[in-house]
From TrEMBL:
One MF annotation (Gene Ontology) recorded for this entry: phenylalanine-tRNA ligase activity
Gene label: pheS
GO terms, biological process: phenylalanyl-tRNA aminoacylation
Domain Aminoacyl-transfer RNA synthetases class-II family profile: 125-328
Enzyme Commission code: 6.1.1.20
Reactions catalysed according to its record: tRNA(Phe) + L-phenylalanine + ATP = L-phenylalanyl-tRNA(Phe) + AMP + diphosphate + H(+)
Subunit structure, as described in the record: Tetramer of two alpha and two beta subunits.
Family to which this protein belongs: Belongs to the class-II aminoacyl-tRNA synthetase family. Phe-tRNA synthetase alpha subunit type 1 subfamily.
Cofactor annotation comment: Binds 2 magnesium ions per tetramer.
GO cellular component labels: cytoplasm
Superkingdom as given in the UniProt entry: Bacteria
Protein name: Phenylalanine--tRNA ligase alpha subunit
Length: 349
């Protein structure tokens, strides 16, 4: 029995040395394992209790309990010490000096780094301000639409190529992602009474092969006027005002005939390329002109689908490609930059 007790006492010295040497929490856990775990040293000693008298067992048991208590005490002290020294070294190596201005932000707005709106949003807001100052209201519509609002009510015949699966994302529930903001023309006609003037900025989706000038998700701003008398002259004036305001100078425009089912007559409005001033460059595909603003007079069938009498009401509409406009504005050569989420790009605006 005396042997067993001295064996336990020897363990105490061993354990104390092991704990003192432990460098981290993992090493401490290993020490516990080695001494009091299932296959630990103390367990080995206790297995020999069988051959002892009850009194002897009590004495050895007591020694074992003393050992365990001592072990716990040593472990707790060491654990505390490890935690403290970990924080002490963290404070040495990872302290935070709140008075230092990070170099990458020091150039920005007086040393304070603040986020800002996306370049597309910036131009959108500017256009909204211009149009609301001319009496337009800003209206919105759903991005997940039905065939009627995206096509049917806009005078797309059933076999119109734009209905083809290639251009449109369809959902399994028979809805689609709107391919243009012209849907909001219909939404506005349903909920507002003429005369009316609206713009509808928003996100649109096309099933496109993505490249430098095509995205599957992009932004448009629709505009529409409904009144008793609306002419191509009104439309042109509106377009010219819009572009002059956006670019901050007079821009040259030209109208070409263009076909859209929901306008008659329909036009493509081009503006003289601002990158090369009409001389021809890669942005204008060497033509000197850039297509920016499809527009036209609202087709009688669209008015009829909204319950308006074309003999009484007339309209003009346009569908501005916001991405392309912003590209012209800032000389951006690749449409994919807009959605890439790269700060290097965004911080320039
Ligand atoms: N919705 C057309 C498109 O995305 C653009 C458009 C053309 C809108 C003529 C109009 C318009 O309002 O009058 O291709």
């Amino acid at each position: 029995m005396a042997d067993l007790i001295s064996e336990i006492q020897a363990l105490e010295a061993e354990a104390a040395a092991a704990i003192a040497a432990a460098a981290d929490a993992e090493a401490l856990a290993q020490v516990t394992q080695n001494f009091t775990g299932k296959k630990g040293a103390l367990t080995g000693v206790m297995k020999q209790l069988g051959s002892l008298t009850p009194e002897e067992r009590t004495a050895v048991g007591k020694a074992a309990n003393t050992f365990k208590a001592k072990l716990d005490e040593l472990l707790a002290a060491k654990e505390k010490q490890l935690t403290e020294s970990k924080f002490a070294s963290l404070a040495e190596t990872e302290f935070l000096d709140l008075s230092v201005t990070p170099p990458e932000f020091s150039q920005v707005r007086g040393g304070v780094s603040s986020g800002h709106t996306h370049p597309i949003t910036q131009t959108q807001r500017r256009l909204e301000a211009i149009f609301t100052s001319m009496g337009f209201s800003i209206v919105d519509g759903p991005q997940v639409e039905d065939d009627y609002h995206n096509f049917g009510a806009l005078n797309f015949t059933d076999d119109h190529p734009a209905r083809d699966m290639q251009d449109t994302f369809y959902t399994v529930t028979g809805h689609l992602l709107r391919t243009h903001t012209s849907t909001v023309q219909i939404r506005a006609l349903e909920s507002m009474k003429p005369p009316l003037r609206i713009i509808a900025p928003g996100r649109v989706f096309r099933y496109e092969e993505v490249d430098a000038s095509h995205e599957h998700t992009f932004y448009q701003m629709e505009g529409m006027i409904i009144d008793r008398k609306v002419s191509v002259g009104n439309l042109l004036h509106l377009m010219q005002t819009l572009l002059t305001e956006v670019f901050g100078r007079e821009v040259d425009v030209r109208l070409r005939p263009g076909y859209f089912p929901f306008v008659e007559p329909g036009f493509e409005l081009d503006m003289k390329c601002l990158v090369c001033n009409g001389a021809g460059c890669s942005v204008c595909k060497h033509s000197g002109w850039v297509e920016v603003l499809p527009c036209g007079l609202v087709h009688p069938n669209v008015l009829r689908s909204a319950g308006l009498d074309p003999a009484e009401w007339q309209g003009a509409a346009f569908g501005l490609g916001l991405n392309r406009l912003v590209m012209m504005q800032h000389g951006i050569e690749d449409i994919r930059h807009f959605m890439a989420g790269k700060l290097e790009f965004l911080r320039q605006f």
